[in-house]
Automatic annotation (TrEMBL):
PANTHER family hit by this protein: UPF0548 PROTEIN (PTHR34202:SF1)
The DUF1990 domain, residue ranges: 13-166
Coiled coil: none
Entry protein name: DUF1990 domain-containing protein
InterPro entries assigned: DUF1990 (IPR018960), UCP010260 (IPR014457)
Transmembrane segments: none
Lineage of producing organism: Bacteria, Bacillati, Actinomycetota, Actinomycetes, Propionibacteriales
């Protein structure tokens, strides 16, 4: 699968935009991970930049190519789970973007060919007690092998969320 192949792909789930809502869509597993990454305007700015330019993915060890950097609604991205040519393609499309004085980030949804079906948001917020990075995801298996993975797949999703958070923290606190 190539990045150009994603242009005509459809979403693999029916609750597009769901991460902007507080309720978990019926039939989906919810993952929410929140991590304090520091304090101050520069930490907020650097964290937001890392999230919106795919640098957080790279720093977490997830190679992603995308149609737009910085990303915008409609940006297609193609990552890979695994090693080299034996990895599984993870095609996604950005469904919403937020760029506010105290909140920046985006959500992307899975496209046909992704092993999971659902959506994930990656948002940096400035709050009275610090800067936070939050991942919120709704997903369910889209393939027989992801169904077979069950709890192992969910544990792997949490581990990747923690990797992202640590990567954003490192990038945001670089001087």
């Amino acid at each position: 699968m190539k990045l150009d192949d994603l242009r005509d792909k459809r979403f693999s789930y029916d609750v597009v935009g769901s991460t902007a809502q507080p309720e978990t869509p019926p039939g989906y597993h919810r993952l929410e991970y929140r991590h304090r990454i520091g304090t101050g305007d520069e930490v907020f700015r650097r964290a937001g930049e890392a999230v919106m330019t795919w640098k957080a993915h790279a720093a977490a060890g997830i190679h992603v190519i995308a149609t737009d950097t910085p990303l915008v609604i409609g940006t297609n991205s193609l990552g890979r789970l695994g090693v080299g040519s034996v990895g599984l393609p993870v095609p996604c499309r950005v469904v919403w973007v937020v760029d506010e004085p105290d909140r920046t980030g985006f959500a992307y949804g899975t496209l046909q060919g992704h092993p999971q079906a659902g959506e994930e948001s990656l948002v940096v917020t400035r709050e009275p007690d610090g800067i936070y990075y939050t991942i919120l995801a709704y997903s369910r298996p889209a393939t027989w092998y992801s169904r077979l993975g069950g709890p192992i797949t969910r544990a792997a999703q949490l581990q990747v969320a923690k990797q992202y958070a640590k990567a954003v923290e490192r990038l945001a606190n670089k001087h």
